Q: What sequence folds into this?
């Protein structure tokens, strides 16, 4: 078993050297009242080695589903209908089952949860839970995990001894969130998935937590996927951005490029909606309307057309394909932009 | 932890107050019963030719208070005697003190009821976890059906059925006494073995009648815990199934502790039938004898003991709860 795993860790599974995880044509559906509704449609992504890739979208855009799909953890009534998620050194996770999958989760790929404050067992001390984690992944020396967690805690300006001997309810919301991040980092994963890691925090804790995440990520060259709805967080942290709308990728670029030259009308609307420190608060424009629900996503044409100021006839019938910009590092799917540039 | 002792003392004092309140209630209840058992006994003694003065003394000895005195004096006397653990004298077992009778009866009931509760709790919880965790498989449906079925059988019918099946149809277990008369009572292995062997059916009756309730409550408790964020998190952190089941079970058991206390009262209620059927001279048997013979002191005493049992169990459950749920610790 271990021999097999070592063999795998050297394999690239056909991924190009800068890619840590390759998602291809991923479709995730939820079965509701006998109908299969798509939460993710034909999502393809390359998550780059050692970088922070942000996935941004509104509630219901499928970003949390994507995070779960990256761990093959979409649970009933949802399922991964087709597509692949391949990791360097691990292989195809959507084909993994049972024990094989369990060993990957939390060890090679770990996740910091949206509700991280509630991700700990309320009845057991934090230290004991870290030991459970270490034992679950058959670490030769489980106690070393406590030392590692203690170091991480000190870096996050937590009192390590106090945190490890505490129960969840004895810690504040901000402290728990940091403990959630410690759980995500303590086994030294190859990939870290963070689902809205700072949503529940006040602005000050938010920026200090982000700073810590950034420095640890840099230090370990940790491949990170950051799920968020907050363009501010993206600007502060991410190397690349993937914009998700109604279960489809609509634009992807490096953060600097995307903020400077957004192509898709949805991305532009998101950027315009950021309130500025200077100038009139009214300069920030909210995007009108609601994202479509799972049941009302149109099956043909562009998924954004209902809210798009540049809607054309073609948008109703034909799904826009990706157009590449720059040196092929920037892609977007929009008929209007395409027509404008031709 | 150093706050544990003061808290225990507070709870015990509270318990004593509660016991006195129930005793007072029982006292006034007896007083309000039409026909007035005190007068009835007094009249009975006078008819039998006992001198009025002597009859009064006897009745006093019997009930622990003097009739024909103002109610509050009788009450104060009753409570005063109660504080000295004097519950009066039985009418059925003429002249024997109720305290003595109850102390003798208590072990039979306490041991069988406690064993029954433990057995049903353990099996019910295991079944509840299995039903909830494998809820889309056949074993879950089967177990649910089985548990609901057992939950629906009244204790009385169940005890009769067990007695009929296992002592008459298949004479596997002995019937009619709590131990083999041929073995000399004492703290010896054969005697204890005989006690245990005779106790199988009554304990099974208690256990089976409450097993279904535990299983079904545990099932819904586990299902609600399965939806908790930390359980999903433990799965995505790749914790071993054994460790995850431990997390789930411990969280899910908590709400059952409250029910556990209530069930003790219910079980003592059931002892009325079960001890009658299996011929155990326990508290249930005492209660039914007392009721049949209008033995009010014994009745009041039996009720009081059941009250005390529930209150004590409450305190114990409260402290157990503290031990397994760190959030309750002060």
A:
């Amino acid at each position: 078993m271990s021999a097999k795993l070592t063999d795998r860790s050297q394999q690239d599974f056909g991924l190009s050297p800068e890619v840590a995880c390759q998602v291809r044509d991923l479709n995730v559906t939820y079965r509701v009242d006998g109908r299969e509704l798509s939460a993710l449609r034909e999502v393809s992504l390359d998550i780059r080695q050692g970088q922070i890739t942000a996935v941004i979208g509104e509630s219901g855009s499928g970003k949390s589903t994507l995070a779960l799909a990256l761990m093959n953890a979409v649970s009933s009534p949802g399922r991964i209908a087709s597509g692949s998620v391949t990791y360097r050194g691990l292989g195809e996770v959507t084909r993994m089952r049972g024990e094989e999958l369990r060993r990957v989760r939390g060890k090679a790929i770990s996740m910091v949860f949206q509700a991280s404050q509630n991700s700990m067992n309320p009845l057991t001390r934090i230290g004991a839970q870290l030991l459970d984690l270490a034992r679950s992944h058959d670490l030769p020396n489980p106690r070393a995990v406590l030392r590692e967690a203690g170091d991480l805690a000190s870096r996050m300006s937590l009192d390590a001894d106090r945190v490890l001997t505490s129960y969840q309810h004895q810690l504040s919301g901000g402290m728990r969130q940091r403990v959630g991040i410690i759980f995500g980092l303590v086994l030294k994963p190859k990939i870290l998935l963070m689902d809205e890691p700072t949503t529940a925090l006040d602005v000050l804790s938010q920026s200090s937590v982000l700073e810590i995440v950034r420095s640890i990520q840099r230090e370990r060259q940790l491949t990170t996927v950051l799920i968020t709805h907050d363009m501010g967080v993206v600007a502060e942290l991410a190397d690349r951005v993937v914009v998700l709308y109604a279960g489809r990728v609509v634009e992807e670029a490096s953060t600097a490029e995307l903020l400077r030259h957004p192509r898709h009308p949805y991305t532009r609307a998101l950027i315009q909606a950021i309130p500025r420190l200077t100038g009139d608060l009214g300069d920030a424009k909210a995007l009108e309307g609601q994202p479509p629900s799972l049941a009302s996503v149109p099956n043909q044409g562009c998924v954004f057309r209902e809210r798009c100021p540049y809607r054309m006839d073609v948008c109703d019938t034909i799904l826009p394909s990706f157009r590449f910009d720059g040196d092929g590092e920037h892609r977007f799917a929009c008929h209007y932009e395409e027509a404008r540039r031709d | 932890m150093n706050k544990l002792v003061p808290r225990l003392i507070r709870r015990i004092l509270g318990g004593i107050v509660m016991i006195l309140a129930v005793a007072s209630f029982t006292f006034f209840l007896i007083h309000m019963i039409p026909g007035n058992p005190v007068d009835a006994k007094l009249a009975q003694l006078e008819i039998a030719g006992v001198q009025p003065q002597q009859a009064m003394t006897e009745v006093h000895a019997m009930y622990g208070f003097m009739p024909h005195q103002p109610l509050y004096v009788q009450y104060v006397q009753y409570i005063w005697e109660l504080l000295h653990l004097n519950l009066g004298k039985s009418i059925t077992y003429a002249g024997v003190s109720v305290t003595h009778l109850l102390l003798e009866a208590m072990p039979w009931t306490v041991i069988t009821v406690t064993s029954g509760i433990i057995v049903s709790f353990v099996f019910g919880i295991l079944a509840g976890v299995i039903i909830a965790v494998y809820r889309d498989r056949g074993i879950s449906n089967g177990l649910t059906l089985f548990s609901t079925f057992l939950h629906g059988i009244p204790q009385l019918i169940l005890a009769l059925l067990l007695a009929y099946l296992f002592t008459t149809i298949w004479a596997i277990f002995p019937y009619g006494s709590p131990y083999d008369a041929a073995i000399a009572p004492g703290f010896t292995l054969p005697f204890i073995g005989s006690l245990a062997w005779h106790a199988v059916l009554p304990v099974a009756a208690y256990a089976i009648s409450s097993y279904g309730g535990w299983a079904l409550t545990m099932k819904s408790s586990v299902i609600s815990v399965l939806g908790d964020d930390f359980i999903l998190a433990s799965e995505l952190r790749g914790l071993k199934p054994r460790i995850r089941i431990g997390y789930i079970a411990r969280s899910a058991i908590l709400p059952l502790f409250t029910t556990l206390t209530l069930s003790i009262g219910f079980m003592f209620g059931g002892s009325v039938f079960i001890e009658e059927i299996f011929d155990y001279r326990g508290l249930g048997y005492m209660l039914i004898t007392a009721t049949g013979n209008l033995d009010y002191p014994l009745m009041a005493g039996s009720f009081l003991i059941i009250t005390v049992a529930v209150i004590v169990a409450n305190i114990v459950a409260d402290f157990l709860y503290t031990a397994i749920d760190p959030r309750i610790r002060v």
Observations:
- Residues 189-226 of chain B form the longest helix (38 residues).
- The two ends of chain B are 8 Å apart (CA to CA).
